[in-house]
Amino acid sequence: MRASKGSSGALEEDLGESERAQRAPCLTDAQVALAARFGTEERITRGQILFSRGERGVDFFLVLDGAIEIFHQDRGGDTRTIAVHRRHQFSGELALFNDQKVLVDARVTESGRVIRMSQTRLRRLLADEPDIARTVLGAYIVRRLSYIRYGQAAVAVVGDLGSASTLSILRFLERNGFPVTALEITEPDTLQFLRNRDVESSRQKFPVVVYGQGKILENPTIEVLAEHLGIREELRSGDEVADLAIVGAGPAGLAAAVYGASEGLRTVVLEAEAPGGQAGSSSMIENYLGFPLGVSGQDLAARAEIQAQKFGARIALPRRVAGLDCAGSPFTLRMEDGDTVRARSLVIATGAHYRRLDLPDVARFEGSGIQYAATAVEARLCAGEEVVVVGGANSAGQAAVFLSKQARHVHLLVRGPALALKMSQYLQERVQASDRISVHVNTRLTALDGARHLDTAHWVDTRTGTGTARKVAGVFLMTGATPNTAWLGDCLETDRDGFLCTGAQITGHTGAFTHRRAHDLETSVPGIFAVGDVRAESVKRVASAVGEGSVVVSAVHQVLGEQAAPQDRSRAGEPRPHHFPTGAPR
Fold first, then answer.
1. For a disulfide at 93, which of 22, 143, 263, 332, Cβ 3.0-4.6 Å?
2. Given strand 386-390, what is the order of strands in its sheet?
């Protein structure tokens, strides 16, 4: 049975001393005294259920004496202990920083006393006491990672692991840090797993997702899946207006969220799939400042997401924006599902996607051989097989190096005469040093073959006309970039390729700026900004996107200052008084 994560479900006693200490640290006496000011002391009694899997907005519990057991039911229906929190230890994990459903249950195993605080009060505590914040946040990150590593609190995805629909579900769950186990439908153990749950494999529409107490979703859409698993967050409606709405949670959008929320702006981020954007599909970024050993795009995005939520930013996903009313502030964003978000300023950070090749069968094989990301989900399907990577820039080099660790061989197809034109030197050296990567320059992909799945790729050397056909497990397309701006219609000025014009690039809408010039990152509509890959002439690097997302908040403050009452205009550009969105600390 092929599984994407460890399926043993490690018990508390199975963990090493170091990992157990990271997952369940103790606060000092002084830290407990500080924390007590933010909560209320309560007595707990043996057998009391403090919260159950699937609840939203659960409280934080700091144990003074007694014991709290954190547990879940595994795929066999058995109750398994994840952790037992005792004196000066605390409950919770990353779900306490958003409006998602909790993944585990908690009950009292020894009567005693706790300090109980709401999520609002917890965020205030972490904002005011950085030493406690480091301990709590560190534990929460390790707990979620251990859920993923050991398959604890996981859902099971059963299906053809090479199919587009199954891969789509797995990719969504894994990129959102949700514990998941993938089961191949043809394996005998999987069939027994289904029979144990009275699931008729001949009657289901696969893939199926098994979650909770034997609940089943048949071939769900991402939106339905997110709703049932509690990943989807509700958007508050009514008259609430955000100071700053950010569309897209790639590096640029997350950076804007961190700086906006930390400087007191009511900040909401709308993301269609998962934090990280295109960078989230990068297996290893080795030239990002401060990470000498490299960092995966997904890990970088996950840490930035937590950082933004710590300061009170709301990150709502999966929420796909379908349109924008940009007639005037407050601007209105329309979601595909009909919900709306209103904001006094906008930052568009929707990035770009890899360009689809003009080949007859690309659409047919997308997700079942043709891939646009090289993460662990896709790499597992290529173990021991040959693969093709198309592209000559950094993303293609990163994909080739990453895939070569599992694939038998990687063929890197480059249209130009050499790698040096677009790829960083360190990646060129990695690619050229690997005996499992062959670089084919002046080469283009010409055809794809296969029945249910892609199995053969054809390419040609454009200098000699020599054609090659190879049996491959996948083709990874990392070719050029197309901006994600179609949802904007003609609201904002773009260049001829669809990227958003900002600052001095604006030519046709300068009349909108009657009293000042546009800020460097401001679009043709005052108060709407563009950062990262979606912006025309941007440098397509993670560090550049993070930089733009960080500095744009200064211009946002100035625009919000211009919108203030006349008596406040003299303070335009200064940070606004610190306040938080609904549900965050005050």
1. 143
2. 370-371, 474-477, 386-390, 409-413, 437-440
Going by DSSP bridges, is the β-strand pair 79-85/208-211 parallel, antiparallel, or unpaired?
Answer: unpaired
Tell me, letter by letter, the H, E, C secondary structure of 200-247.
CCCCCCCCEEEECCCEEEECCCHHHHHHHHCCCCCCCCCCCCECEEEE
Q: Which residues pair with 267 in a beta bridge?
A: 244
Work out the end-to-end distance of the chain between its first and last CA atoms, rounded to an integer number of angstroms: 50
Q: Is the peptide bond before 330 cis (omega within 30 degrees of 0)?
A: yes
Where residue 163 falls among pLDDT bands split at 50, 70, 90?
confident
Burial class of residue 198, CB neighbours in 10 A (0-12, 13-18, 19+): exposed
The beta-strand segments (E) located in 435-573 are: 437-440, 443-450, 454-461, 467-471, 474-477, 481-483, 528-530
Roughly what angle, to the nearest 10 degrees, separates helices 251-262 and 542-563? 40
Task: Express each pLDDT in 120-144 by its tens digit.
Answer: 899 899 989 999 999 999 999 888 8
Q: How far apart are CA 550 and CA 251, in angstroms?
A: 10
Joined together, the tokens standing for residue 68 give 């709290």
| pLDDT band, very low/low/confident/very high, at 21 (cuts 50, 70, 90) | confident
Q: Identify the residue whose tokens are 């290529």.
A: 382
What is the reported pLDDT for 407? 95
How would you classify the pairing of strands 180-184 and 60-73?
A: unpaired
Using the predicted structure, report yes or no on whether residue 565 has a pLDDT greater than 80. Answer: no
Cβ pair 404, 384 in contact under 8 A: no
Q: What's this model's pTM, rounded to 2 decimal places?
A: 0.85
Q: What is the CA radius of gyration of the chain?
A: 25
- How far, in Å, CA of 341 to CA of 334, rounded? 7
Q: Two tokens at 533?
A: 């890959």
pLDDT over 70 at 1, yes or no: no
Mean pLDDT score, 90-100: 88
3-state helix, strand, coil in the chain (%, to 5): 30, 25, 45
**Gap between the Cα atoms of 202 and 464, Å rounded:** 51
CB 149, CB 4: distance < 8 Å: no
Tokens of 164: 């587009």
Q: How many CA atoms lie within 13 A of 586 on its CB side?
A: 3
Task: Quickly list H helices, 79-212.
Answer: 119-128, 130-150, 164-175, 188-196
Token pair belonging to 101: 């459903």
Query: To which residue do tokens 């005294």 refer?
Result: 33
